[in-house]
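ok trying again, last paste got cut off:
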Amino acid sequence: MERGIENLLVKYITGQASEEEGLVVKDWIRADEKNEARYLELYETWHLSLYADHSIDPDLAYEKFAKETNIQKRTGIRRIRAIWISSAAVVLLACAIGFYLNPFGNSISGRSEIVISVPKGTTRKLTLPDGTIAWLNAGTTLRYNQNFGKEQRSVYLNGEAYFDIAASERNIPFLLNTDKFVIRDIGTVFNVKAYADEPDFEMAVFEGEVSVEGKFSSHNPQKGKVFLSEKQVLKVKTPVLNKSNKKVAEPARKPDNNELIKLVEVTPAQMEEYKGWTDNFLVFDGESFRKIANDFERRYNVKITFQDPDLEKYEYSGTFRDIRDIRSALQIIKKTTPMEYTINDSEIIIKKLAK
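nice, full thing came through this time. structure:
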């Protein structure tokens, strides 16, 4: 592997990478399935080693880590300052990278990876080796290693899933890794929506308590942690970037965290919004037409294009129960929206109703 991407992987996993470097790493990961598999293994090694009972100087830890991985010291490198990075974590990741980069080795550990992909238009319920029950929504991929449940319980999610986590007799935490955040849990019930191709992250806890860790602000490189308990919902909105990595719409003033991160208490009725899809219905509460269209695309396996961007901003609240086809769903929205649409196989074009 090239030394350049090696350095970026190390910085990305340990929280040192800039936003631009993070995009380079993500492009590299998505370019090849082998790249993704190698990254996931290294990523798992790092996160399983966090939460030691003691803390160390983060500068010394990074220096040791850099030395072990042969990274040349650079001026201006931002070092993460979080007390939960341990010496063991640094050494473990360094050793893993040494094996990972060994040109004479085969795979990192020789373990096979289980990959479950749910196509658009369907959902799937499954039981993991530890007894955890998972419902996977349309267009979702779940990955985990064959040794899951023995020494670790780490899964990797791209999409939406509802989990009923089985308690571990050995108190092995359940780690759910998404594109942006890591969720830690021992035994609870929650729903998480984290599609890599969408900017927003949503999580709702039905029972128990979890922690969500990651970078909650592009203005602050340091990772943070948020705790959620029963009947709490976390919503994180990420500014949308165009192809030149610039924000599509720059706000007139710098937004504060409350505009991008919301942790709210909800009623039992409102909680249905976050698990309705497991019972074949969708619940929306003040959602934009564009976001609803994204759900429709996965649910009905179609592609929706808006000719007028203003239509995308319309907001709706309501429940779609047992709506079997996209035409019926669009007809419901059309009752309160000045729109018309055309359907050509799986291609749908929505435009404003001509006056």
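cool. The domain at 111-278 is CATH 2.60.120.1440 (Jelly Rolls). The CA atoms of residues 14 and 80 lie 8 Å apart.
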